[in-house]
Structures are given as C-alpha cells and as structure tokens.
Structure prediction request, 341 residues.
Amino acid sequence: MIALGIETSCDETSAAAVDDRGRILSNVVHSQQVHGQFGGVVPELASRDHLKKIASVAEQAASEAGGLAAVDLVAATGSPGLMGALLVGHSFASALAASLGKPLVTVNHVEAHVWAAFLQDPGLEPPLVALVVSGGHTSLFHMDSGYRLSLMGRTLDDAAGEAFDKVAKMMGLGYPGGPVIERRAAASAGKPPRFPRALLDEGSLDFSFSGLKTAVLNHLLSLGDAYLSRLGPDGIDGVCRGFQDAVFDVLADKAARAAELSRCRALAVVGGVAANGELRRRFGEMAAREGIKLVVPTPDLCTDNAAMVAWNGWRRHIGGVSGPNENTVKSRAQWPQYRRA
Ligand code: KG4
Ligand code: ZN
Prediction:
C-alpha cells in the first residue's frame, strides 16, 4: 500500500512515496534556484517553476516506488503557503487521484512537518510537544493522544527561519540564510556580539524575532555605511554566531517550558531550522538535562519534503488522526488554543 505525497507550498517542488508502515520508498525534492538573486521567495516565480517541474518530479517519485499503478492514495498540501504555489501541487494531485481512481487526502503543511518526527521515529507516541521552526512558521504545539494539535505559542512577527534569511541578506550572504549562517557561526572564534532574547523572561510561550533582526541591523549600521568591509570575514562570522545564539536560546528555553507546562515527556523539533547542527546539539543537551525524549528528523526530513505529506496523508486516511479532510486550498491555517487540563 503506497501513498504518493505532493508538496508545493513554498519553493520546493517535491513528491514522495511512503508505504502504510511509514517506509520512505522515494522522496524527490527540487529546490527552486530562481529566488537566490532576490534574497527571498518571489511568489509568482515560485508558481511558474512548480508548474514546470511538478510532472517530472511526481513521475520520478512514482517510478522509484514501482510506478503509478502501485499508488493507492494521493496526498497533497492544501494549506498554509503561497496560494499560487499550493494551487499547482494540489490541482495536479487532485487530477492525478481522479485519473487513477484513488482517494485524495489534503494535508496541512505545518502538521505534516510534525509528522516527519513520526517517520523518523516510529516509536514516538503522543502526547508530546512539537516545535515547528521553519521559514514561514515558528509555533509550539501540544499534540494530544488523538494526534490533535493545539497551539501553545507562536511568533508574533517573523518566523525564525525568516529572520535567518533576512539577517543573511543584510550581510550579503545569499538565500536561504540558514545554512550559510550555520557555517559562518561555526567558524567564529572569540566573543560574539550579544543580541536581545525577546520575551524570554515573560511567562508567555510566544516568540518575537523582528526586534532581534533590527538589533542586528543597528549593530551593522553603527559601523557605518561600509559595515561589511569594517567587519571583515571574522566579524561577519561573529555576528552570525551572536544572532544564532540569541534565536536558539529562546527556542530551547520555551520548548522546555512548554514540555513542563503540559507535563509532556516527548518533544519533536521539526521544520527547516531544525536542520541546523548547533540547534540539534543544544536541544540534545536540554533534553538530556530535562529527561525529555527528543526527536529531531534528519535534515532532509526537516526542510520541505513530500515524504512527511504522504505519511500524514496515510495516517489521516487510515483513521485515528482527528480533523476534517477538506479537499480545498487555503493560504492560512488556524489552530485551537492549548488549554491546560
Ligand atoms: O521548512 P522549510 O524548508 O520551509 C518552510 O516551511 O518555511 O524551512 C525553510 C527555512 C528557511 O528560512 C531556511 O533559511 C531555514 O529553514 N533553514 C535553516 C537551515 N536550513 C534551512 N535555518 C538554520 N540553519 C539551517 N541549517
Ligand atoms: Zn515547511
């Protein structure tokens, strides 16, 4: 039994086949290159590139898993994301499902990120806390034993990944910013500049990263117009390190607090930023200190991919995962608020 997943919510065109036991048979990801020169994703260009690639990416994913005839279910991301981009993948998936005479399951992209943790560790069971930390989202969820997500906290402004991308842009480091900031931060020697940790001392589980972004910009501008040459390569490494430290201090602290508040002994950290080696190291330390079971998927399952979509689709189809299957495309998602039992 095979589900073919389709993911086009942002700038990755992906298709993957996952069987009903959660084994990944194929996971093809085409990362769009057209956005690099703009320092961020240009929605119209994303839609056009998805349109060019979707058929060949899906064909490859299906053929690596035994061909389209082996597909029993099609799962596609329907929300949240860029409207035009979502429409390309979802329309393709719904036409494919109709032509094969197989069911279509529409999946929420943020929920699918959480399901990457179940692909990674089949032994993982809710209740748990999930930190979704990507380019579009930074949210803390409680997942109950029926696999229902409720929101414990979220960013009030930028997502953490978005802050990585914007800070990289300020220093001319290209897009996406996460991987290059990780590399530059790892190369930093000496004491990095200290940037603010927003909302850390308050009880709230919400995040804010726009003030941190401004603090980095002010730090750069205080060096004058030619701040990049004033900083030099070592100085840039230090700013990357100081910025990354500020982001991860807040993420790790709030995730630990969410686990404590909900009395969960399991934590999943998912989404593109969770591909970061330093984040993984710090969360590993925190989880060991707090006695929490930590699951962080391998980097290819953290960044956008269709395997997580296929697996979420399977589990919704089989039953036991609550929530309606609305076969529609929406750009935004809303979540019920977590209430302490
Ligand atoms: O989950 P994802 O692929 O797409 C969204 O759903 O948004 O996340 C993309 C984000 C980008 O902002 C990118 O800069 C960030 O994840 N990212 C990283 C790393 N790799 C990707 N951030 C920090 N360190 C990384 N190694
Ligand atoms: Zn994503």
Notes: Residues 37 and 189 are 30 Å apart (CA to CA). The beta strands are 2-7, 12-19, 24-31, 71-79, 104-108, 128-133, 138-143, 149-154, 266-270, 293-295. Residues 227-262 form the longest helix (36 residues). The pocket of KG4 (ligand 1) is lined by residues 10, 134-136, 161-162, 164-165, 176-179, 182, 271-273, 275-276, 303-304 (CB under 6 Å).
